[in-house]
Amino acid sequence: MPDLKTAALLLLMTLSLSAHSQDGEQRGLEIALAAKAYDHGFTDFTANMIMTLKNKAGKTSTRLIRIRTLEVEGDGDKTLSIFDEPADVKGTAMLTYTHGLKPDDQWLYLPALKRVKRISSRNKSGPFMGSTFAFEDLGSQEVEKYSYNYLRDEPCGDWTCHVVERFPAYEHSGYTRQVVWIDSEAYRIVRAEYFDRKKALLKTLIAGDFEQFLGHYWRPASMNMENHQTGKSTLLEWTDYQFKTGLSERDFRSQSLKRIK
Amino acid sequence: MRRLVVGLGLLLISFNGFAEFSGNVAIEAITFPEPAKFENQFDRNLTMSFQPKWDGEWNDGDDLWSAELFMRADNKDSQREHADIRELLWLHLDGDNEWRVGVNTMFWGVTESQHLVDVINQIDGVEGIDGEDKLGQPMIHLKRYQDWGVLDFLVLPGFRERTFRGEEGRPRLPLVVDTDQAEYESSAGQQHIDYALRFSQTYNDLDLGVSWFDGTSREPLLLPGDSDGEPVLIPFYEQMTQIGVDAQLLYLDWIWRLELIHREANSSDRDAFVVGFEYTFFGVFDSLSDIGAIAEFSHDNRPEELRDVFDRDLFLGARFALNDAQSTEVLAGFLVDVDKYSRSFRIEASRRVGQSWKATLELQTFAHIDPEDSLVAFEDDDYVLVDLAYFF
Question: What is the chain B residue with the closest CA to A110?
């Protein structure tokens, strides 16, 4: 009875697979929790970001953005982005209170009108400053934003990486899933692949030149996001990272945007 | 005024060691396809503007200063050739208090088609016809943060008169406004000190503001007069007290907005509101572009002869944001008077060119303007405007 044997074998395989995937879910979540725990306590940081947009023809344009981030206990981080270039948006500031599953709160200060405008943050998939980074790629990565599935461990450069699938649990994501390579030692995301709503590979992120701050916290000095469907890419180069600078809630008030320099 | 501005500019340039310098210089071309309604008005004009800005800080960022000037050169309309200090400000941060002393420009309110509660700054009427260009206002301003909201206290010494286009200017009112003959209800005239208060707070997805203003109205009555035997309009600035409320609610892909005011003045009391929404379609047609649909209704109960454009009007607009590397944006708006069916249509489009330039296109038409409507003076003033600005 080879057919019965095959069927039994298949059944066994299916059972072990589903058991495995439940394990995968648990293991994936554990990795996300461990990554969050590792980065916990950074308190605040400031950094400068050079963003270079490259189109299909290789033509580039540059943005200079200063970033200030405050860690918030029990909620997502607060981030202030101040634009220095291009010159026509100089002085524009964007304030974001990130949250887990709930939409973020977001304000934009427009210096030409001297106006602080509350903006809708529901469109997570919208591009940040015309780049290949979407808002959801740059926001703080709260654990509850995704469900997880651990796939495997594999070498990634000098390190060993956990390869984990993430499925956005928040509304209006541009992705059906992401595959993330995160190193097993200090939980640095070195690579991520993003799959669009049609489940096709949309973008790949490669992060490198990691530096350690305060003897603990790791940040990449470069992040390159390539869009495979449009041929565009965006390189973020991070400089002048400073941690525990003494920023407080006071520095992240929507009405204070008018005094940002 | 001009000499003062240039002198100040030179002084500030010499301070450049402590200051960051930025701004823009722009060239603006406007053309009117239809013949002018009034004598001496131009059909085409080419003007330039210069807007430099300096700012710096000391005391570890607890004290900041900033200065911003605006200048326009206009060969055809002598009234539009002007200079203004938009900002000349000392800002001191002291915990939950922020002090601002000097000249500043500020914005209150939430709606798109009209700005009812925004009464601190005078409108720079010779610039755009949308009233979004404003003159710098001298002020002492304390902003105080409390757990239950933000309070703004303003003392406003020194009144700024509204600017009006000259005889050659276009569009303009049927009679030239003679600003040299401006009159005031208060015997203190321009020296009258005005006061304002504002409370604002964010409650989750609701932003609420309540404001109070007491002083010289920024919006003059235009009274018939004469200048060397020629009929002109003379601005008359009344005293007024205004209470205003502005609210904005975010709900799913909707933003609901409301502004309402109650104003008391000798000529008449005024109750007015504007209410509406913006609904955004994100990532339309599988692209990265967003389209926002805007609808706002405005109502004003002033006597007919005192009303402006917005008496009972419906504004329908669409905002296109391409979210591309050039930040291309288009705002198209259609304003219709629900009683008289006067209609006007406007498109504003802008796009970054290269790394440092920005091009803006403005198209305005006035159609079927009722003779009773205050817009009737503009009925032949459809125009196309192109502005090319270099930012540094």
Answer: B107
